[in-house]
From TrEMBL:
Gene Ontology BP term (one): anthranilate metabolic process
Protein name (record): Kynureninase
SUPFAM superfamilies reported in the protein's UniProt record: PLP-dependent transferases
Lineage per the UniProt record: Bacteria, Pseudomonadati, Bacteroidota, Flavobacteriia, Flavobacteriales
Domain annotation Aminotransferase class V: ranges: 156-247
Gene this chain is encoded by: kynU
Length: 424
C-alpha cells in the first residue's frame, strides 16, 4: 500500500478498518479536554467499558450470597478461572488444558522454574537475552543463587553485536550450541521490552531442546500482541502478564502455559497448594497432594476473583475478534506509524532512528524510536499535548499503536504534534 501523510488518507484507512468500532469499547483519559493518543498499551492497556459489569457482578454476588457465591453465583467462584481456558488457549496457541491463570508474572516464572530449572553439577547454565527486563534479571540471579551457583558463572546473556540494536537469531543459535551440555534452560522474552524485537521462538525452542535443555518464554510483551503457537512449537512453559495488551488492569493476574507432555510427569517437582489438588476431592481436605492433570495443577491458592473479572472481560473481547484480525490491523497501523515518523523526519532538523526491526515478522505493536538531537523536553511536550507515550534513557520513546483502540487518524495527528514539538 502507498501511504499518504494526510488527514484525509488516515480517515480513509479508518473507514476501511472493521476493528475501528472497538475504540468505543474503551475509556480514554483526556488532556486539555480531548481524548488522548494512547501509545502505552505495552505498559498498561486502557480499561474496557465492559469491565465494570464483570466486576460489579462479583461484588453483587458477594453482597447477596457471601460465601455461597463460591458455588451458587452465576459464575461460581470456585471454578471461575476455568472460563479462561478456551479463549486464552486461542490467544497463545495452546490446548485448553495447557493454560491457567494465577498470581503475577514474576511469581509464576519463579514457580515454573521450580519445575523446569533443575541444575546439576554439569548442566546448570541459563541463556537469556542481553537487556532482559530487570525483573527477569533479578529472578535469574536469585534462582541461581538459590541453587548454589554464582550468576556470573550460570547466567549467559546473548549480546547484540557492536553498533546493532537487535540480537541476531544466528547468534542465539550459536550460543546455544556453544554452551551445549552445560545448558539447563533457555528463558528469553518473546518480545524484547526495550526494542520491540520479536524472537523466532520456534527455531530457538527447537535448538534448546536439541541441546538437551528446557525452553521457556516470558511473554509479557507477546501475549495478545503476536501470533503464538506454544503447543505446536513444543515450548516447555511460558508466562505472561495480562495488563499490557490484554487490558486487565494494573498489576493483574498472570497467565501460564505448561505443555501437555509434562502434565502426567509425577517426577516433576512443583510447589503445591490446595487449588492445584484434584478438583473433585479438594474439599475433602486430604493430606496427600494429587495434582490436577493440566496447567491448573500448578495453582497454589484459591484465586482472586475480583482481579480475574476484568481479565475475563478482556479475553472474551479477544475471543470475539480473533488474533488473526488483530494482527492484520497491527501490521498495517504499525507500518503507517513508521511511514509517518519518516515523513516528519524529512521536515525537521532532528533525525529519528527506529531501533525496532523493520522486518514485520520481527516486530509487533511497538516502535522504539531513538530521537537524535532531542531530549526529555520533547517527551514532556508530547505528554502535555495529549500523546501518552513513555521514555527510556538516554533518548528513546516507545510507541505502541495497539490495534484494539488506536486509529490511523491518531497516527497522523501524532505526527503533527511531534513536528510542532520539534519545530517549536
Amino acid at each position: 500500500m502507498t501511504f499518504e501523510n494526510t488527514l484525509e488518507f488516515a480517515k480513509q484507512l479508518d473507514a476501511q478498518d472493521h476493528l475501528n468500532k472497538y475504540q468505543n469499547e474503551f475509556i480514554f483519559p483526556k488532556v486539555n479536554g480531548k481524548k488522548v493518543i494512547y501509545f502505552t498499551g505495552n505498559s498498561l492497556g486502557l480499561q474496557p467499558k465492559r469491565t465494570k459489569a464483570y466486576v460489579d457482578e462479583v461484588m453483587n454476588d458477594w453482597a447477596n450470597l457471601a460465601v455461597e457465591g463460591h458455588f451458587y453465583s452465576e459464575k461460581p467462584w470456585w471454578d471461575y478461572h476455568e472460563r479462561f481456558a478456551n479463549p486464552l488457549s486461542k490467544i497463545v496457541g495452546a490446548l485448553p488444558s495447557e493454560v491457567t491463570v494465577m498470581n503475577t508474572l514474576t511469581v509464576n516464572l519463579h514457580l515454573l522454574m521450580v519445575s523446569f530449572y533443575r541444575p546439576t553439577t554439569t548442566r546448570y547454565k541459563i541463556i537469556c537475552e542481553e537487556k532482559a527486563f530487570p525483573s527477569d534479571q533479578y529472578m535469574f540471579q536469585s534462582q541461581v543463587h538459590f541453587h548454589g551457583y554464582k550468576p556470573e558463572a550460570a547466567i549467559v546473556e546473548i549480546k547484540r553485536r557492536d553498533g546493532e540494536h537487535n540480537i541476531r537469531l544466528e547468534d542465539v543459535l550459536a550460543k546455544i550450541d556453544e554452551i551445549g551440555d552445560e545448558l539447563a534452560l533457555v528463558l528469553i522474552g518473546g518480545v524484547n521490552y526495550y526494542t520491540g524485537q520479536v524472537f523466532d521462538m520456534k527455531t530457538i525452542t527447537d535448538a534448546g531442546h536439541k541441546a538437551g535443555a528446557k525452553v521457556g518464554w516470558d511473554l509479557a510483551h507477546a501475549a495478545g500482541n503476536i501470533k503464538l503457537e506454544l503447543h505446536d512449537w513444543n515450548v516447555d512453559f511460558a508466562a505472561w502478564c495480562s495488563y499490557k495488551y490484554m487490558n486487565s488492569g494494573p498489576g493483574n493476574a498472570s497467565g501460564c502455559f505448561i505443555h501437555e507432555k509434562h502434565h502426567n510427569n509425577s517426577d516433576l517437582p512443583r510447589f503445591a497448594g490446595w487449588w492445584g489438588h484434584n478438583k473433585e476431592r479438594r474439599f475433602k481436605m486430604e493430606q496427600t497432594f494429587d495434582p490436577i492433570r493440566g496447567a491448573d495443577g500448578w495453582q497454589i491458592s484459591n484465586l482472586p476473583v475480583l482481579s480475574l473479572a476484568p481479565y475475563l472481560a478482556s479475553v472474551e473481547m479477544f475471543d470475539e475478534i480473533g488474533m488473526d484480525s488483530l494482527i492484520q490491523k497491527r501490521d498495517l497501523i504499525t507500518s503507517y506509524l513508521e511511514f509517518i515518523l519518516y515523513e516528519i523526519d524529512k521536515e525537521v532538523d532532528s533525525s529519528f532512528e527506529i531501533i525496532t526491526p523493520s522486518n514485520p515478522s520481527e516486530r509487533a505493536s511497538q516502535l522504539s524510536v531513538l530521537l537524535h538531537g532531542e531530549g526529555r523536553s520533547l517527551f514532556d511536550y508530547l505528554m502535555k499535548n495529549g500523546v501518552i507515550t513513555d521514555w527510556r534513557e538516554p533518548n528513546v520513546i516507545r510507541l505502541a499503536p495497539v490495534p484494539l483502540y488506536c486509529s490511523f487518524e491518531d497516527m497522523y495527528n501524532f505526527g503533527q504534534i511531534l513536528k510542532a514539538g520539534i519545530v517549536g
